[in-house]
Specification:
By secondary structure, this protein is α/β, with parallel strands linked by helices. 37% of the residues lie in helices and 16% in strands. Helix 1 crosses helix 4 and helix 2 packs antiparallel against helix 3.
Length: 231
């Protein structure tokens, strides 16, 4: 929700295999890959299969020459295995979160991360538990700390328990259909966000978060991180 892969790290990695890419193309490549994580799978999320599709779509979008594709994929997989690569703040994401907070909705985060996403978001002054320079959230569930990853419903249930709420009281916002939307199939009102090739979905407006009484409902803010080592 708040981070994308660091342009400089990806560009430098590809240069080591003689691929020179304009940094502004990298977000498009990421979203092309993200579309390879659809929500309509059966059973357990096929992590390895979808991750390989992600990488293939990524290099396709960058139009990497055929003779360099294998080396590029290998280099990208190595870089993506490092959680710290997910550190470039999506333009406008912090402002959007603050605008959402100003409506009075309650906020929480569920993240597939490395155990340090809370510190990273706090240091970047995006959000934190309790008062601080960023937006205040009530709970932050990091898969690296709790040992369960999205789309496993248990990680979402942890947030509900922490907030003492039911799924019907939650707006769920996420940018990965196969991880976020599929994981929210437990009564949440799921609102995919993202761009480019991700599925179409209704836009979430701040006025949608209030009931007829004008009192705000909860909004859970979810984000994701790929983990190519999973599955």
């Amino acid at each position: 929700m708040f981070h994308l892969p660091d342009h400089a790290v990806i560009a430098a990695a590809l240069e080591r295999v003689d691929v020179v890419i304009e940094p502004e193309l990298l977000d498009r490549a990421h979203y092309a890959g993200a579309a390879c994580f659809p929500p309509d799978y059966e059973g357990e999320l096929p992590w390895r299969e979808m991750w390989e599709r992600y990488l293939a779509a990524y290099v396709d979008e960058l139009d990497i020459p055929e003779d360099l594709r294998d080396d590029a994929v290998s280099r990208l997989e190595s870089e993506f295995a490092t959680a710290a690569i997910w550190r470039r703040v999506i333009p406008g994401s912090a402002d959007g979160l603050r605008t959402l907070s100003e409506t009075g909705v309650r906020l929480g985060v569920v993240s597939n991360a490395d155990g340090d996403v809370g510190a990273r978001l706090r240091d970047q002054e995006i959000l934190q538990l309790g008062p601080g320079p960023g937006v205040e959230v009530e709970t932050l569930i990091d898969s690296g700390q709790v040992g369960v990853m999205k789309p496993d419903p248990r990680i979402f249930e942890m947030a509900l328990i922490a907030l003492e709420l039911t799924p019907e009281q939650v707006w769920y916002v996420g940018d990965m259909p196969g991880i976020d939307v599929a994981g929210a199939r437990r009564g949440y009102r799921a609102v995919p966000h993202g761009s480019l090739r991700l599925q179409r979905a209704p836009r979430l407006r701040t006025r949608d978060l209030t009931g007829r009484s004008g009192r705000p409902h909860l909004s859970l803010r979810f984000r994701h991180r790929f983990d190519p080592r999973a599955g």
